Amino acid sequence: MHQKLKNYISNIDADYADIRYEKMNKVTIIFSGKELKTIGSNSTDGYVIRALKNGGFANIAVTKEEDIEKAIKIVTDNASLLGKESKNKTALKFPETVQDTVTLELNEDPRDILLDEKLELTRYYNELMLNSKDIEITNTSYHEINRDKYFASSQGTYIHEPTLTNVIVAGIIAKNGDLVQNIRADVGGSDGFARLRNRDDRFLEKAKIASELLKAEPVKGGNYNLVMDSEMAGTFVHEAFGHFSEADLIENNPSILAKMEIGAKLGTDILSITDDPTQKGLIGYYKYDDEGVFARPVKLMEKGVLMGRLHSMKTAAAFGNELTGHAVAEDFRYAPIIRMGTIGIETGNDSFEAVLKKAGNGLYAVGCKGGQTSGENFTFAALYGYLIQDGKLGPLVRDINVMGNLFASMQNVAAISKNVSYCEVGGCGKGQFNIKSCMGGPHVLINNALVGGI
Amino acid sequence: MERILEIAEKHSDSAEVFNISNSMHTTESKNYGLTNMESTIQSGYALRILKDGYLGTSYTKNLLDPEKLVQDALVSLKGKVDGSFQFPDKHKPKELKTYDLSIEELKNSDLIIETKELSEYVKKRVDPKGQFNLTTGFGSFQKHIMNTNELDVKFKSSFFYNYAGILFPSSYAHVENITFSIGRQLLDRVKLDRSIELYNKSLKNVTVKSGDIDVIFTPRTIKILLWRVRTGASAKSIYDNISPIKNKIGEKIFSDNFTYVDDPFAGSPEDSSFDDEGTAKSRFSIIENGVFSGIYNSLDYAKKLGMKPTGHGYREGNETVAASPIPVLANQMVLPGDTSIDDMIKNTKRGVLLLGDLGAHSGNIPNGDFSVGLNPGLYIENGEVVGRIKDGMIAGNVYDIMKNIKCIENITHQDFSGKFPSLCIGDVKFSV
After folding, report:
1. Are residues A330 and A385 both part of a single domain?
2. Which of B41, B170, B359 sits opposite A379 (nearest CB)?
3. Which positions in chain A touch B208 (Cβ < 8 Å)?
4. Alpha-carbon distance A186 to A189, whole Å?
5. Residue A376 pLDDT
6. Which are the contacts of B46, defined by CB distance < 8 A and separation ≥ 6?
7. How confident is the model at residue A453 (pLDDT cuts 50, 70, 90)?
């Protein structure tokens, strides 16, 4: 493969070029209720070519090898055109040239496990939930994604890095009369199949909560002292803050860039944030990004002060910063864009009970049903929550959607707990879907957060 | 494709091959300057086989080995997925004009002058705190479906789009303009001028008290509501017994003035006279004058519910060939009403013009609930847009609030998922 990619690179008339070939195998098993809807193992492949020419940087994704010649012409023409017509010429910061083959470290390689065994494990968890009280339907699926990536650049870098993730995710719907309540449960990671075994409690607990939500009151809209669990805190730091740390999202937005000046005091003294794709065992782990850059941890905030950003080769040059190794593509259909690896809020000094006590009267939000960001504004929904009354957990409530302003929220972070955990199933939909986007943190108290009820 | 079918037929009772290929080129301009050009040339194949009432599936992007595609489907068949439905018989689909050859001859360089002119035009008219982003894309796609019942249907479509946004400071909230057409269509300057005017009027942040309020859902944000409605009307939700309107066919569930259809002949690049399973399509009514009139299905769910296939089996997802057909509305349209957008605003004493949202995808969608951030929501006071609401949310349940549709805009606007007017609903819960 190395020689083949080198040959393609040598045909590209550009100041810099790289090519990524990926062979991807996906194993998918999907249940809808008791019914198995999909089962199979399928392979796909394709190429992404990028070229820098005369200050323009363009890319093309192509499936068939026979289209590569045409693709090279399109991408070099586009790069040249961009260079000629753009006000700001593109430069790249290049990593050290490297030749490396990365091997997977797995506790039970899922590729060695029969499809039947994967089916039976998925069916087992599915039936545990279906047999729980009030559960009307589940949508339970097993997804195993094996990306075998080969990267070569005109600078002489050649990397072969496979990544492999396997997850079991379930949408659980409870019903009573016309009222339905939905919740999610998931297990998974990038460190092997063993992680998926013996996880009954996780699925049973969520099925029980789905049932209890049928009797829970919707939360009343208003402002709350909000305690977020690890998953919500992870979503908060990912959605509200993390996307602002991605240099490609702010480089062409002067008003946001001005607010995100390095050295600015944006949060309270107890708030520190790091993105670290090098944490083995977490779903966000990788060694090299999809530009062939060695990934490293980046301290984004220290005691409330903005310290760093996540970069691609393009933005590292534009900002005059060091490379961080955060340019990642969903797969061979896309050029890489800047993505968080594993982002988390660092631990504080309080116990969970002390955080609740500091909240006084408020809301404890648990789990995440999705989030979205738009500049300094963000929103995310919790799976469920509990009212906090006099510093203690009160009744279960549902339909929690939090909306906020990043800068105001970070100044309202009032307590952080000692415990920390990270998500097992990743996901971020910035342009492409990144299944390895990992997030987490401790319990975090934000005072005066806006919650919209139904 | 013939070769795949030939091999598959030897191992099955019936088989279907689906092929898609597309090419697309996009040019991006951000903050008045060119920033990126991307292209993609993709293809893919999916195979479904039926044997003894079971379904086997497989797919690939780059068809290197037809035998392997069939073998993968045979492995899948062993899982015993229900496949009691039948593939459609041979038919001649209605021919549609969905292809403009001139799109194939376009180059990114053809778009540069227009992109630059538009950027300059907006820059002169928009407050300097704002910025203008524009993405222009064009390309074509082909779909071809064959099955062992001698069905052989294909179509080719071209598309051209502009997505223009004038962004508010410190935000990605924006006032947008979209074109989406079969041939090249420039941004309408009259509509752009209107967006600029609206933007300049709403630069000021305003504080508004919480409480019930009128909301004008624009063609972009009406989709918050439609997402919930179409989830309830899907044969999958009906079969799964999670639809709140399961037993309400023929009942009036929304205001009289609301009609929601799937129209595959509306003149959009998404027009097609058959779905991703080859089933013939026609105009289909989901809500007719407020009455729940149609459950849309795929072959699988039609069989499960004892219905006739409606032609809504689509491979939904960002990798078409990898997805199994499920009920999807690919050609949505809300029929226009009788009120101009100007009159809607003029007639609103206290309301929100909701240009964008945050969080439409979250919350309890099957139940019809929504709770979204305004992104942006412009405040209307005594018939005038007076500013932009900072950090507000609206919430409700579609089966409650859509009984109170005050009026619907008298024209529809084409965007990527269909044609929609604006729609005004009274007394929506609003929090700040």
Report:
1. yes
2. B359
3. none
4. 10
5. 84
6. B17, B18, B19, B57, B58, B59, B315, B320, B321, B322
7. low
Q: What's the CA gap between B374 and B357, in Å, rounded?
A: 5
pLDDT (0 to 100) of residue A454: 62
CATH number, domain with residue B34 = 3.30.2290.10
Full domain range(s) for residue B285: 205-431
Domain limits at A400? 218-452
Interface of B with A in 152-171 (CB under 8 A): 167-171
Closest chain A C-alpha to B338 CA, distance in angstroms:
30
Number of domains in chain A: 2
CB contact under 8 A, B62 and A375: no
Between residues 290 and 329 of chain B, which touch chain A (CB distance below 8 Å)? 318-319, 322, 324
B397 has a chain A CB within 8 A of its CB: yes
**Model pLDDT for residues B145-173, shown as the tens digit of each residue:** 999 999 999 999 999 999 999 999 888 89
Interface contact flag, B39 A60, Cβ < 8 Å: yes
Residues B180 and B305 in one domain: no
pLDDT band at residue A87 using 50, 70 and 90 as cut-offs: confident
Tokens of B364: 């309890």
Taking only the tens place, the pLDDT of each residue in B94-122 is: 999 999 999 999 988 888 988 999 999 99
Q: What does pTM read for this prediction? A: 0.93
**Do B150 and B277 fall into the same domain?**
no
Distances, alpha carbon A389 to alpha carbons A189, A224, A353, A360, A396, in Å: 36, 12, 12, 6, 12
Domain count, chain B: 2
Same domain, A278 and A387: yes
Q: Is the per-residue pLDDT at B182 higher than 90? A: yes
Q: Are strands B405-408 and B393-397 parallel, antiparallel or unpaired?
A: unpaired
Task: From chain B, pick out residues whose CB is under 8 angstroms from the CB of A259.
Answer: 170
Element (H, E) at B112: helix B108-125
pLDDT in tens, B128-146: 888 999 999 999 999 999 9
pLDDT in tens, B371-399: 899 999 999 999 999 999 987 899 999 99
Average pLDDT of span A317-346:
97
Cα–Cα distance for residue pair B10/B6, rounded to 1 Å:
7
Whether residue B285 sits in one domain with residue B349: yes
Chain B residues close to A44, C-beta within 8 Å = 44, 59-62, 322
Written as six digits, the tokens of B107 are 């180059």
B24 shares its domain with B141 = yes
Shared domain check, A417 and A367: yes
